[in-house]
Task: inverse folding
């Protein structure tokens, strides 16, 4: 197969094979989409901002013992990652009620969730990524019980690490979405950790620094994304 | 308040106060609805068939140690029940994949689910009864962990009893929906157990004996409901 043929093309990333069968090349594109692809735009720098964030957070997690697919970032918007057998779940961790939780259930936006809430969606665009529970994940053979336990434990560990990190920078980690994959019997964090996949609020002003700026036309989304990177990465953009 | 003013009017049942503050009177109406009320018809005998089934199954469960709200059935379509503080959850137990599970996830109708699957919907017509998971049930203070564990345990116990019962009568208990309430710190089975709330298939022919006959215009729904009662209750209809 032509090595330039994408292995997989998502809404904001394109994945290619590499010469090493255990590694993949991920291009973070400038596409921004929301509402399951109904809203779609292109923003300069978006790909490299999210790749930068993903590298940063995956390195942070690795230091704390969380296995991720990150290997290297040879170009600003390109990441080399470990090839995983992806699990078709979006694992959502929530520290504060917002987004779909507030739309679906009678709970005020901003309500603190302690302990944090873990929820899972079955990743399937055509079905609209329906919510799924533990019993169904097991019944549909998506994961066995030990794997599901491991996924949830890792998701909560990622939450502890990221929440404590953002706390120091005056940002509330409201919620975020993770995707995991398997490799040799191990559950490993894949996909990305970026301003696309997290909901981040300024602790003082409540201002959004994430995709909600785009979703709800709250201002200039790339300014918001850049602000996160400038706050957390010394000398970013200098 | 006028004792004739309903305390609560659902899609197929109306609930009234009684002279005893600990008891309620439930009238099983002849209304049949489907697809969250979009389809609606009246069928003679429907109320008394479902009240008959509910009494029958609740007595069966009580014999096996499951606490239910059933007290008496003074008229064919009227039930006196213990007043409960209802929990706004629909607890669904599935032994075979069918219905919304097949629509939402990639699983073939008829797939055996072993162990059975328990799922919960948040009971709220205006929100379309969205699916809810354990973490959210706790976070929204719908139940505490001990109560949730009790609800699930009781739902699975009900499943064991009903499934074994139907098995003897050549019927597969595909899935069913339960609602629970609280009374003095106890979790008690409320609502109804009827052909409206269960999915029942003839083991030989695969024929439906439940609300699917109405939902999908598979034949005469009251003939189907009557067949269940004739099969399981000696001398029913004589």
Result:
């Amino acid at each position: 197969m032509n090595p330039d043929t994408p292995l997989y093309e998502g809404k904001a990333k394109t994945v290619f094979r590499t010469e090493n069968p255990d590694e993949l090349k991920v291009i973070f594109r400038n596409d921004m989409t929301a509402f399951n692809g109904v809203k779609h735009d292109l923003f300069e720098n978006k790909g490299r901002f999210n790749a930068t964030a993903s590298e940063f957070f995956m390195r942070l997690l690795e230091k704390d013992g969380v296995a991720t697919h990150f290997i290297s970032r040879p170009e600003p918007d390109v990441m080399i990652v470990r090839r995983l057998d992806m699990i078709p779940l979006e694992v959502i961790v929530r520290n504060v009620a917002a987004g779909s939780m507030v739309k679906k259930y009678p709970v005020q936006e901003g309500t603190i969730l302690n302990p944090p809430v873990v929820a899972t969606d079955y990743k399937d665009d055509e079905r609209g990524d329906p919510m799924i529970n533990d019993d169904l994940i097991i019944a549909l053979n998506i994961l066995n019980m030990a794997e599901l336990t491991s996924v949830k434990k890792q998701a909560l560990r990622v939450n502890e690490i990221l929440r404590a990190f953002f706390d120091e920078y005056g940002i509330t980690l409201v919620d975020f979405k993770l995707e995991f994959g398997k490799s040799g019997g191990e559950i490993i964090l894949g996909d990305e950790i970026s301003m696309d996949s997290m909901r981040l609020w300024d602790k003082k002003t409540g201002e959004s620094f994430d995709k909600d700026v785009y979703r709800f036309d709250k201002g200039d989304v790339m300014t918001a994304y850049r602000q996160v990177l400038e706050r957390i990465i010394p000398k970013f953009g200098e």
Q: What stands out?
A: The interface with chain A takes residues 97, 101, 104-107, 113, 115, 117-120, 122, 124, 127, 130-136, 138-140 of chain B (CB under 8 Å). The CA atoms of residues 147 and 186 of chain B lie 9 Å apart. The radius of gyration of chain B is 17 Å.
